[in-house]
Amino acid sequence: MKKGLFISIEGPDGSGKSTQISALKNYFEERGVDVLLTREPGGTPISEKIREIILDKNNKEMDYMTEALLYAASRAQHVAQVIKPALTAGKIVICDRFIDSSIAYQGYGRGLGDCVRVINEYAVRGCMPDVTFLLKVDPKVGKERINEDEQDRLEQEKLEFHQRVFAGYIDMEKRFDRIISIDACRSIDEISADIISYIEKIISQRLL
Length: 208
Ligand code: ADP
Ligand code: TYD
Fold this sequence. Notes:
The chain is of the alpha/beta class. The protein has 8 helices and 5 strands, in the order E-H-E-H-H-E-H-H-E-H-H-E-H. The chain has a 5-stranded parallel beta sheet, with helices on both faces. The longest helix is centred in the middle third of the chain and has 25 residues, at about 65-90. The structure holds adenosine-5'-diphosphate (ADP) and thymidine-5'-diphosphate.
């Protein structure tokens, strides 16, 4: 591969992103391929500090625009310090959430609209995923999979918020070719087999 491969995983809370990322990591490691796993918000010491502020359940007064800008700030640092250097070094980067989460949660969920995409274009400076897997599961099912005591400030939002986020994802899936929709209501093994078959196709096309 001439350059690295940037994979992002998206979907509602509890859709199985972390589970699938660890399956993908095993897949690559069994083949001796070094992968970088990272997540948003987070992925660098500065971004993890921003994550604590955003997700803190006590920050009830946080303005929606502040929230959107904090996610974007965390992402800007993550791209500059971790993602871009890894891709330049030819690595495979697997990121648990990226720009689409902001468009879905802040753009559609909070109702901030298209300015969220624009803010994030400044944050990522052209560093976009090569492929994005959208794990599609009804937000109600996703929410039921997560322990209520462990829910952060965003996860605690009411179901209507999560339905708007999901509608946003469905909308984006139609607009962006890089987004591959995965039925996440199936078994963990069926879902990972599906994702791996897409990855194998992408890698074989790149080697041509
Ligand atoms: P996310 O990272 O998207 O929030 P997780 O991977 O942490 O989701 O999964 C949330 C919970 O749902 C975990 O308890 C996990 O074991 C379970 N889970 C993951 N995938 C599935 C699946 N396909 N079917 C049922 N439960 C699942
Ligand atoms: P995360 O830790 O990925 O939660 P989970 O593993 O349960 O999916 O993300 C924390 C929360 O932040 C999650 O509810 C989604 C939200 N979020 C946004 O609202 N905008 C963003 O840009 C990102 C990256 C996450």
